[in-house]
Amino acid sequence: MSNYFKTYLSMKKLYILAIAIAVTTFSCKKNKEDEPAPSGSEQAKVVENYANIVYATYDDALITAKNLRAKAADFVASPSEAGLEEVRAAYIASRTPYIQSEAFRFYSGPIDQDLGGGLTIESSINSWPLEEVYIDYVVGDANAGIINDVAHFPTIDKNVILENNQKEGAGENSVSSGYHAVEFLLWGQDLSETGPGDRKYTDYLVNSDDATNLNQARRGQYLLACIDLIIDNLQTLKEAWKSGNASNYRAGFIADPKGSIGNFLKGVIGYADDELSVERMQVALDTEGDAERQEQEQSCFSDQTYNDIILGQKGIKNVYVGEYVRIDGTIVSGMSVSDLVKAADPKLDSTVRAKIYDTDIKVAAIHAPFDNEILTANTAGTIRVQNAINALHVEAAQYKNAANKIGYLY
Questions:
Q1: pLDDT tens digit string along 337-380?
Q2: What is the DSSP letter of 276?
Q3: How far apart are CA 219 and CA 221, in angstroms?
Q4: Residue 250 burial (10 A CB sphere; 0-12, 13-18, 19+)
């Protein structure tokens, strides 16, 4: 059994178990019919807890990105098959907190900070689809990409990568930075119908007769610089949400509890109703042709899209229930949107929670790899994906009902 399939089965079993435990836990809680309407102090507690969750999530993303950097540095210094597998595992681990953080988008928060030229911190970290030929060789073109263009890019460093990310005139798919650039450098093109890409560690061997393809040293430089950029951006996000700083984003966010709740609810609704459901899945299903559909898969090189969808839904749930489980097992929790809704309408809160857990089940039902699920001949797979999409739309609608109940109109 491949490491990829073992990871998939392990993730699926753990996720389904977590759903079962959560459903049992929440079904045992009694509604407090006589609970008073939410007060300003309660709103402040919700905002404080949300900010704590955001900070912890970005902190975990930073910790895991630094671990990825360390593993990658060891690998580049002494390439081996085992070393490449370690870096790949570190990459997958780094995605676990980051994908959960995507529920913090779409309300002009720090992640959507404008970097100029129409780019944001998010587009520097997580842009996709990615045109492989913009970065490195592809089948049929051994000299493609920044890595192999020594004449135009004699030096590879963070500035070169950042300056050329979705460069004006190059096209929005001309992505040079972020997680998916790292993913491509670790797995290579996904040319398999049953598994992820299969880049060889020998692509990184320097001054060796066993080396494959060109510019092995530059490839290693690109990998490390790309991870360094991710770390820089995550550090910026962490600092923006750090407590105790009177002049950072968090300070202003905490100072306006009512407005901030409205903002982050708008963000999570947009993520569920458009980004995760439509951009990540519906677009693929609506695309004509299997090859074209597979190009719409987010984590196509590593075949980790299934996990991306699960973790995206987990982030949506985190916001409503006001809880985040850190990578070390520590739980960050406090007063939540759910608590505010329950105080206003206990039955509605129960309905929202039920739809959240129904969505958990629907996304867990998708089979990995995702690119097989969306093949036109895979009727059962496309139904599973469509069921998950529909569940996300229903979940978003219930989020809107909850928001309306506590004074926000969407």
A1: 999 999 999 999 999 999 999 999 999 999 999 999 999 999 99
A2: I
A3: 5
A4: buried
Domain CATH for 277: 1.20.1420.20
Task: Specify the amino acid at residue 336.
Answer: S
* Amino acid identity, position 57: T
The pair of structure tokens assigned to 292 is: 């074209």
91 assigned to some structural domain: yes
Phi, psi angle pair for 51, to nearest 5°: -60, -40
Provide the token pair at 135: 């970065």
Check whether the bond before 38 is cis (ω within 30° of 0).
Answer: no
Six-digit token pair at 16?
Answer: 């389904």
The strand pair at 331-333 and 114-116 is best described as unpaired
Full-model pTM: 0.91
- 354's tokens: 């039920």
In a domain, 410, yes or no: no
* Domain extent at residue 253: 3-405
132 near 142, Cβ under 8 Å?
no
Write the pLDDT tens digit of every residue in 183-236.
999 999 999 878 999 999 999 999 999 999 999 999 999 999 999 999 999 999
Phi, psi of 324 (to 5 degrees): -140, 130
On whether residue 376 sits in a domain, the answer given is yes
Residue 367 within a domain: yes
∠ CA 336-250-404 to the nearest 5 degrees? 40
CA dihedral 181, 182, 185, 189 (to 10 degrees): -60
Which token pair is 47? 């905002």
Q: Does residue 125 contact residue 230 with C-beta atoms inside 8 Å?
A: yes
Largest CA distance in the chain: 76
CB atoms within 10 A of CB 216: 20
E-strand stretches of 249-330: 323-325
Omega before 196 cis (within 30°)? no
Residues 6+ apart with CB under 8 A from 388: 277, 281, 309, 359, 362, 363, 365, 366
Total tally of structural domains belonging to the chain: 1
Burial 286-301 (b: 16+ CB within 10 A, else e): ebeebeebbebbbbbb
128 phi-psi bin (left φ>0, alpha ψ -120 to 50, beta other): beta
Of 400, 389, 362, whose CA–CA distance to 269 is shortest?
400
The Cα angle at residue 20 between residues 19 and 24, in degrees rounded to 5? 115
Quote the tokens at residue 238.
Answer: 């962490």
